[in-house]
Design a protein that fits this description.
This protein is α+β, with helices and mostly antiparallel strands and 386 residues long. The protein has three domains: 115 residues, Acyl-CoA dehydrogenase/oxidase, N-terminal domain (Butyryl-Coa Dehydrogenase, subunit A, domain 1); 98 residues, Butyryl-CoA Dehydrogenase, subunit A, domain 2 (Beta Barrel); 146 residues, Butyryl-CoA Dehydrogenase, subunit A, domain 3. The protein has ten helices and eleven strands. The strands form three sheets. Strands 3, 4, 5, 6, 7, 8 and 9 form a seven-stranded mixed beta sheet that branches. A two-stranded antiparallel ribbon has the order 1-2. A hairpin with a 2-residue loop joins β10 and β11. α3 packs antiparallel against α4, α6 packs parallel to α8 and α8 packs antiparallel against α9. The protein is globular, with a radius of gyration of 21 Å. The N and C termini lie far apart (49 Å).
């Protein structure tokens, strides 16, 4: 089993429960996911049979309370995301979308009937959800969304298109954000609704072990009871994204750990010019830089988790962690790929898969550049976007 990377003794700052949760997920990833991920990445599929196992382990919506949910602390939840993404960004994305982008808005903004209807099956993995915000022409600018809902009798009629939606094709319910009378509102759109289709996007060179879809709404009738009553405006989806970005900040550390561990092992075994690659100064300099960046990312994520558990975390702090840790992981994946030479492009090793995945993670849930501007506005009080 993967032994972890802990240069600063962070292990001692974790509770016994956090370590136990992390280790159980670590074992699951090593035993049940890593042996099959290469085949799924090649085929462009996700191992759907593992979703009930994630539910059985309490990993779907793990930091939410009530309705049978575990309600674990946010540091423990972050460690779950770390270990899942150490396996693959697609695995963490599945759990992150299910918990932070589907269960969280139902849990936070939904009616009691909506919670009772959806949270139990989403918790167990009997039902799968997706989150419809991004549109073909509106990714970084969600306020410009074109998807519209209009009142029609006792319900609503939905028209529009969403793009790059994780789990969309297999989802039983979609949390869809649309403008109703000019105000952004959330709707629960159920699979099989007439006029609702979710074709899978098959042209990806990244996140191949993940289902990514388009959501198309053509005069889709949504019952009045499927409107999320507890939120109006863009604040709703942005609150959901904050939850997801928190998990990404931890998950990226896991991907970086996987790449570093593979690069270190490879250079200790591989010989060139009669010497192990790890004995060369350039190799050691790269390894030193990588462990430094990983340690900084671990400490950043841990402090963010402490802030979240204390209820003092700000969304801008999440932007800083997502921005830093994902870009850090991407650079480490690129460096590790190079250290493996030609073998680095083979799927016999992990680094190229993580590197390609992280190109997407660097883009979704707010690009590196958008989070840069979020921090700039927070520091100066000047909005550079508008």
């Amino acid at each position: 089993m993967f032994k972890g990377i802990d240069y600063y003794g962070i292990e001692g700052d974790l509770s016994g429960e956090s370590r136990m949760i992390r280790d159980s997920v670590r074992q699951f990833v090593d035993r049940e996911f890593l042996p099959i991920v290469r085949g799924h990445y090649r085929a462009g599929t996700f191992p759907l049979h593992l979703i009930p196992k994630l539910g059985e382990m309490g990993l779907l919506g793990a930091n939410l309370k009530g309705f049978g949910l575990p309600g674990i602390d946010n540091v423990s939840y972050g460690l779950v995301m770390q270990e899942l993404e150490r396996g693959d960004s697609g695995l963490r994305s599945l759990a992150s979308v299910q918990g932070a982008l589907v269960m969280y808005p139902i849990h936070t903004f939904g009616s009691e009937e909506q919670k009772e209807r959806w949270l139990p099956p989403l918790r167990t993995g009997e039902a799968i959800g997706c989150f419809g915000l991004t549109e073909p022409d509106h990714g970084s600018d969600p306020a410009g969304m074109k998807t519209r809902a209009v009142r029609d009798g006792k319900g609503y009629v939905l028209n529009g298109t969403k793009m790059w939606i994780t789990n969309g094709t297999v989802a039983d319910v979609a949390v869809v954000w649309a403008k109703l009378d000019g105000v952004v509102r959330g709707f629960l759109v159920e699979k099989g609704s007439p006029g609702f289709s979710s074709p899978e996007i098959l042209s990806k060179l990244s996140l191949r072990a993940s289902i990514t879809s388009e959501l198309v709404f053509e005069d889709v009738r949504v019952p009045a009871g499927n409107l999320l009553p507890g939120i109006e405006g863009l604040k709703g989806p942005l609150m959901c994204l904050t939850q997801a970005r928190y998990g990404i900040a931890w998950g990226a550390v896991g991907a970086a750990m996987a790449c570093f561990d593979e690069a270190l092992s490879y250079t200790l075994e591989r010989k060139m010019f009669g010497r192990r690659i790890a004995s060369f100064q350039l190799s050691q300099a790269k390894l030193a830089d990588m462990i430094t960046q990983i340690t900084m990312g671990q400490l950043l994520a841990l402090k963010l988790g402490r802030l979240k558990d204390a209820g003092t975390m700000r969304s801008q702090q999440v932007s800083l962690a997502k921005r830093n840790n994902v870009r850090m992981a991407l650079e480490i994946a690129r460096t590790a790929r190079g250290m493996l030479g030609a073998n680095g492009i083979s799927d016999e090793y992990q680094v190229m898969r993580h590197m390609c995945n992280l190109e997407s993670v660097d883009t979704y849930e707010g690009t590196y550049e958008i989070h840069t501007l979020v921090l700039g506005k927070d520091l100066t009080g000047i909005d550079a976007v508008s």
